[in-house]
Amino acid sequence: HIRSPKIGPYCIGLTHIQDPKAMRLLETIEKSNESHAVRGAAALAQAILHRRLGGGKFGMAIRQKKLKLAIKAPDLTVGRTTTMALLKDELFRMSRLNINTEAPDFRGVEVTQKISSLHDHRGKVTILFFWHALMPAHDQSLALFRKYHTEFANNGIDIIGTNMDTPLTLRKHIADGKVTWKNYSDSTQTVSKLYRIETWPSVFVLDEKHKIRYIGAPGAFVKITAEDLAKQAAARKAAALENPAPGK
User: Residue 151 and residue 227: Cα distance in Å, rounded?
Assistant: First the structure.
């Protein structure tokens, strides 16, 4: 079966099995299948799987290598999409949604109907929290962010929630006191799609220049990263005040 010219869509399907065994199978298909399109699909699938499994700089290098191979392969239909569309999505993730890249700006509507943007928060460490009412560990995540909202109030750290429930559900959470931080209503998932959110809850931590410094689930690393970035930003600001640039 691994030599079949029809196995390309199966390669992409394996990306949802976050198992090293799936990676080894994809490597075998890439080496042994005679179809250029299938080999490209297997390479693309490896790049996607490396992203989902993690792997740091080593995994990033492999992703780049596999995406270069996939670019040269013919386009292949996979369900309702194509390998080329998936490839473009992976390239966007790599160039715009990676550690040390500047987070994509967006405009959002708050429950008060006020429109504001992520750019409005530049100059502060910013935590983007993607959530909804039916996500796993819902109550624990909201309790954690209520705690963060209190702790970070005077630390130069902003929290922005992006909620994919209906505005009515979001307002109820706010009225019940379960949500105390600023939130955008994202029932159309416009912002969630921009950030390629696949699992909820998801968190991005941005430095004061809005470069991405953390991507993952809520937890201790969110707090550690945000507080460390805030301390670094405060130190740079203090140093700039003590040693102003010439002419200022």
Answer: 10
